[in-house]
Amino acid sequence: MPRHPVPILVSLFAGLLLESGCAPAVELDDIRLPPGFHIEVFAEIDDARSLALSPSGTLFVGTRKAGMVHALRDTDADGRADRTVVIASGLNMPNGVAFKDGALFVAEVNRLLRFEDIENRLDDPLPPQVVYDDLPTDRGHGWKFIAFGPDGLLYVPVGAPCNICEPEPPYASLLRMKADGSGREVFARGIRNTVGFDWHPVTKDLWFTDNGRDWLGDDLPPDELNVAPTPGLHFGYPYLHGKSVRDPEYGDSGKEIDKTAPAHEFQAHVAPLGAEFYTGKMFPEKYRNQLLVAQHGSWNRSTKVGYKVVALFIEG
């Protein structure tokens, strides 16, 4: 069974103060930061979800419920967006955005779009080209995070269309394909719903978060951080969760799978989403090449957990 070669440690990077019930409306003063860190508003976008930054500094923002994709520019370099453009609207949960070779790629539930020469046409985008349109139409876990890997391929997850079930392919998997939509293949299986992944800057291994199933109580199963150094691995869903939690409904039917254990188990229901290796120079050196993970926070737990960003320090 493949195992990751290094242990990881977890440290609080930033957390939101939480009141009883559910997450409150957040003000900047409600956010706890490590000493020496500062936070400020860059832009206000309703339903902002995934982000993609072009090399020239245009920030593209996908949404889930609003159906729009935005482009933001900080033209005077004061740390706040002074130009906001809606470049697409009326889309089907366009959560995922990725930028490559001057084009913006947008993931709807059932298809992938490409906006050519987008930075030169923010006010008048060309009609999008359909890159790929053979994805399931299920909206449950259908919103997607997408990204291009070091291999130049576009990685696209297909979440399970349920809380717990034994779905047929391509559900519960991570796909990859060429930028023109050709050559689609399954990279990894047994993934309930990943909405965040990135590649280690040095090893180029793929690290991804996965949201565990619901209705096994407050503390089971753990949410996961996984690493896939090679294609073809299976990460357990729906048979096994975390490192050792056998599913009460499907656990027996998956006895023979060669499950790859997670590199780290998060607390149940923290809902880890975005994952990004820090490669900048603004943060202290200890954060360089370490993984930042945004936890959306619990929705069905008696005591709420999550609602923070954590740094995972990879040793080895």
Question: What this model shows, in words?
Answer:
Helices cover 0% and strands 34% of the residues. By secondary structure, the chain is mainly β. It has a five-stranded antiparallel sheet with strand order 2-1-24-23-22, with no helix packed on it. A five-stranded mixed sheet has the order 11-12-13-14-18, with no helix packed on it. Mean pLDDT is 91; it is low at 1-7 and 16-23.
Topology:
Blueprint lengths: L7 E9 L14 E2 L15 E6 L5 E5 L5 E5 L9 E6 L7 E5 L2 E5 L4 E4 L13 E4 L14 E2 L5 E5 L14 E5 L7 E5 L7 E3 L6 E5 L12 E6 L4 E2 L5 E2 L3 E2 L17 E3 L5 E6 L13 E5 L12 E7 L2
Parallel strand pairs: 14-18
Antiparallel strand pairs: 1-2, 1-24, 3-4, 4-5, 5-6, 7-8, 8-9, 9-10, 11-12, 12-13, 13-14, 15-16, 16-17, 17-21, 19-20, 22-23, 23-24
Beta-strand proportion: 25-35%
Compute the average pLDDT.
91
Order of helices and strands: EEEEEEEEEEEEEEEEEEEEEEEE
Which strand order do you get reading across the main beta sheet? 2-1-24-23-22
What keyword list fits this structure?
single chain, 0% helix, 5-stranded antiparallel β-sheet, 316 residues, 5-stranded mixed β-sheet, mainly beta
Entry summary:
Helix content is 0%, strand content 34%.
